[in-house]
DNA sequence: AGACTTTGTCTATTCATTAAACAAAGTCAT
DNA sequence: ATGACTTTGTTTAATGAATAGACAAAGTCT
């Protein structure tokens, strides 16, 4: 799209800047916003007045004086509207309603009968009907819908390829916008998870992070400078198919030695001496709690291979924080020491210096919350400039 | 830095937009610029007048009429100033003088006597003295200096770590700016190479590319959406230490199975059955020309491992183009088929679809030209906005 | 020769930011 | 309690960048 500079752009930039500061540092005064942003007091006053008119900001009363007139404190009005967050996974559909600060109001999960697009859309429609009825009375109502999908997504919200659903080239955003008459954002499941953890979870204080979703495969969401990073043509982070054993196990993708064969739930099938039918992390965690040597050994191997892949990602992206999420997060007590050992032995000293490996704080909710936040972020009209 | 929106920013954005269009599509009329940018004709006229006053744009005469008044054609004045591009490599120092379109005017190379910072700065000073005398008479003269360094660089132009030089924490930009009184930009050698190929080489028509510099090690420069991509804290792409054999050869970095041990000039030491003292690509290319089976086998292995690492990068960054540069580029005839075979077998179908693997067009010059372009780009004050 | 096109400039207007003045409301030492 | 000083937030006038539309200049085409 053609972007040129004009006064509307200036206002958009500054209004977004003011709102961001209020969201981050509330309660605070107009004068403080002026100091934080570098904008003139008069400018801040004008923009704040517009935000108050939009009902996105509230005056919450007077604050402490610091030797002069008492400031009028401003706060973000998190109840001005609500967002829907959807996680479409292989077996089930989860929908949450959140306020504008990503706090979950209600949550519903239902099993997916099959993977056909129509079935999925019908189920969504039924579940959304329930959700819409639950939206509390508010100025803006339901402001949008964010969806996390287990596959590759382009910038137009088309699902390019979702092998576990058997989807290929589904114009999901278009269909959902038509169906619900709402602005819709579509993200890869791992990217949504990364956004969720960045905004409300383990990554709240980080600017550069890699979120690794470890389930029946591995996906990564990458945040650089507070922004979700997607490669060319709108998606990236298919790191599960990074080869860590050049001549290792053959993978369904055509390659060999893919990371996810060794370090995800897929390892349950691939690494046991006696192939074991159970590919459920909960089962193996239970076994590990009972000190079953096979489970301990299994998680050690998974931990080590996670460490190897994490090292590779750290050398490429140099994040300050790596967050491990997905089902495998439940095995933290058994994998963590091995991940830690491998990472601290293998990463380059400069990368290691400030690197922290953590486990998802939002647990199963990272993706739905992140998906909802993508919709919120679009509604609030965030803008960034780089020089 | 605090960035707010004001009229100066608007003007900067639009002026940069106009100049970019003139550089890309010259010769063209003001009206055409207005159509291309979406800016009002009057705005374009004003900005073009300023650019003419700055001597960055010239009126090159009248063009063809299309049924009305003849247009006044505009061109970018590539001789308005000159930039210095420097490549600091392990054995030598290369300096070029380029015009504002990156065309090399003069070029000098001298061996580095040792790796001490002072020695290097002294040599630079001597070589720059020669270069300065060669700058043709022009409005802006020598507008800046860009340097490509074999190591990690932060956003302030500090060389954090350059193992092959033994440098650690050298404030190179600061020292050079003081020494020469010029704006200086510092980039990683591979990033500079990527910029060079993007602007003037094999990547001219690409927006997303990965440039792989294969010499005594591997470094990667990543371009996303036409912009050099650096990770957190200003550097990224240390992909040479990506582990592709989880339990492979031990590497000096502390890890095992690092890509560069198998796919760079380091492979000459590591993969031969009889360790061979010769680590020179030129030597092995000569051997391969004589159909020596050992050389053929060597390049086959290097090609295959290059393909494996490239696959990993493609899965993470999804570029449309991969460019192989550095000394190893000389072995293209012997490695290319193997790279191609592995990449087309291993990459995910969606990534493969539009992916092209090419070899550096600028050859040994990618880095110096890219470094010079970094200085030019800063001089021209390019701005980008994203919404 | 006259109607129509195209290019590029000029003029008046709009609008966002800003500096500075200002009013309102507080603190603090005496 | 009083008066000097501080702090907050609004008002006012000025600045300047983009823009629509008018307009002049220079061309083409029938």
UniProtKB/TrEMBL annotation, chains A, B:
Give the species. Answer: Paenibacillus wenxiniae
Give the protein's biological function: Transcriptional repressor of xylose-utilizing enzymes.
Which keywords appear in this protein's UniProt record, sorted alphabetically? Carbohydrate metabolism, Xylose metabolism
| Presence of the UniProt keyword Transcription in the record | no
Q: What is this protein called?
A: ROK family transcriptional regulator
Keyword Metal-binding belongs to the record: no
Give the family from UniProt: Belongs to the ROK (NagC/XylR) family.
Q: Which PANTHER family match?
A: BIFUNCTIONAL UDP-N-ACETYLGLUCOSAMINE 2-EPIMERASE_N-ACETYLMANNOSAMINE KINASE, ROK (REPRESSOR, ORF, KINASE) FAMILY
């Amino acid at each position: 799209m053609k972007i040129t500079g004009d006064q509307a752009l200036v206002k958009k930039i500054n209004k977004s800047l003011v709102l961001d500061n209020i969201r981050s540092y509330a309660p605070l005064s107009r004068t403080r916003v002026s100091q934080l942003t570098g904008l003139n007091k008069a400018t801040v006053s004008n923009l704040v007045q517009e935000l108050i008119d939009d009902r996105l900001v509230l005056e919450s009363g007077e604050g402490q004086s610091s030797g002069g007139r008492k400031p009028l404190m401003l706060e973000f009005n998190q109840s001005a509207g609500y967002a829907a967050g959807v996680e479409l996974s292989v077996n089930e559909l989860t929908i949450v309603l959140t306020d504008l600060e990503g706090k979950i109001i209600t949550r519903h999960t239902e099993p997916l009968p099959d993977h056909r697009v129509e079935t999925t859309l019908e189920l969504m429609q039924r579940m959304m009907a329930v959700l819409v009825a639950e939206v509390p009375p508010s100025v803006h109502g339901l402001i949008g819908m964010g969806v996390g999908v287990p596959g590759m997504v382009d910038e137009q919200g088309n699902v390019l390829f979702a092998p576990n659903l058997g989807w290929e080239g589904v114009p999901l955003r278009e269909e959902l916008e038509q169906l619900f008459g709402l602005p819709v954002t579509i993200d890869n499941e791992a990217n949504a998870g990364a956004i969720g953890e960045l905004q409300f979870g383990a990554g709240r204080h980080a600017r550069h992070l890699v979120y690794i979703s470890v389930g029946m495969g591995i996906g990564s969401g990458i945040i650089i400078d507070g922004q979700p990073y997607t490669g060319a043509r709108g998606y990236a982070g298919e790191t599960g198919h990074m080869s860590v054993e050049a001549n290792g196990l053959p993978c369904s993708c055509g390659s060999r030695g893919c990371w996810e064969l060794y370090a995800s739930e897929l390892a349950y099938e691939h690494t046991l001496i006696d192939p074991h039918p159970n590919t459920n992390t909960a089962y193996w965690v239970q076994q590990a709690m009972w000190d079953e040597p096979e489970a301990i050994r299994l998680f050690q191997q998974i931990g080590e291979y996670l460490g190897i892949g994490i090292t590779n990602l750290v050398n490429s992206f140099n994040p300050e924080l790596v967050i491990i999420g997905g089902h495998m997060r439940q095995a933290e007590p058994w994998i963590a020491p091995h991940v830690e050992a491998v990472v601290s032995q293998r990463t380059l000293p400069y990368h290691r210096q400030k690197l922290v490996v953590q486990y998802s704080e939002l647990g199963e909710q990272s993706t739905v919350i992140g998906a909802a936040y993508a919709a919120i972020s679009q509604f609030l009209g965030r803008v960034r400039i780089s020089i």
